[in-house]
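A.,

Following up on our hallway conversation. Structure tokens first:
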């Protein structure tokens, strides 16, 4: 399965039986807890194969009250909703604009190589909707294999509260000193992405 353009996973549980690719410059936004189409039920993303994020693309996947409020949580200042995201095999990103991943399970490896929006901390791409600088983060999750991140240039990069089955290898980040905002919390109280 392929994502071209912007795809919102907000109409129930989405299950991809094989691999999922987010094409260059596209965005996959799967940080909704409710079924916003029917008004009942929940939304979540499960990819049984690999998830590939290509050049300049953005992944926003998973949400929870403590670290990244779901985009459809009615109270962004005191969120209560959550949505768990699952990738059966690997999550691989080749020069993405950013990967924002919370409340997740990846069965294989997480590999992010290059990308970012530079060290200028200016909103770009889908980050403009959050009024947030470009960043990547992997928070509150489980990775069955390795976590390998290299060459990412952005305002902020984080791996927080992630259980790694094999190795979490150090990464090189050449940015962040000029950014004084906490992008993980920044979107709270901001308008939701357009639907």
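Then the amino acids I'd put at each of the 195 positions:
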């Amino acid at each position: 399965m392929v994502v071209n353009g912007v795809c919102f996973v907000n109409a129930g549980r989405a299950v991809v039986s094989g691999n999922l690719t987010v094409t260059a410059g596209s965005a996959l936004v799967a940080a909704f807890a409710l079924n916003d189409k029917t008004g009942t039920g929940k939304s979540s993303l499960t990819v049984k194969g690999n998830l590939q994020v290509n050049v300049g693309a953005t992944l926003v996947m998973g949400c929870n009250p403590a670290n990244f409020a779901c985009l459809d949580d009615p109270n962004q200042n005191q969120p209560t909703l959550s949505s768990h995201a699952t990738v059966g095999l690997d999550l691989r990103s080749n020069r993405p604009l950013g990967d924002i991943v919370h409340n997740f399970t990846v069965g294989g490896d997480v590999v992010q190589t290059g990308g970012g929006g530079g060290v200028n901390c200016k909103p770009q791409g889908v980050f403009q909707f959050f009024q947030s600088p470009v960043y990547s983060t992997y928070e509150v999750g489980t990775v069955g294999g390795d976590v390998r991140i290299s060459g990412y240039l952005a305002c902020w990069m984080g791996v927080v509260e992630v259980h790694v089955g094999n190795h979490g290898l150090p990464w090189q980040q050449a940015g962040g000193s000029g950014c004084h905002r906490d992008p993980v919390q920044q979107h709270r109280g901001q308008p939701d992405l357009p639907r």
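The chain has one domain: 2-186. Curious whether your intuition agrees with the design.

B.
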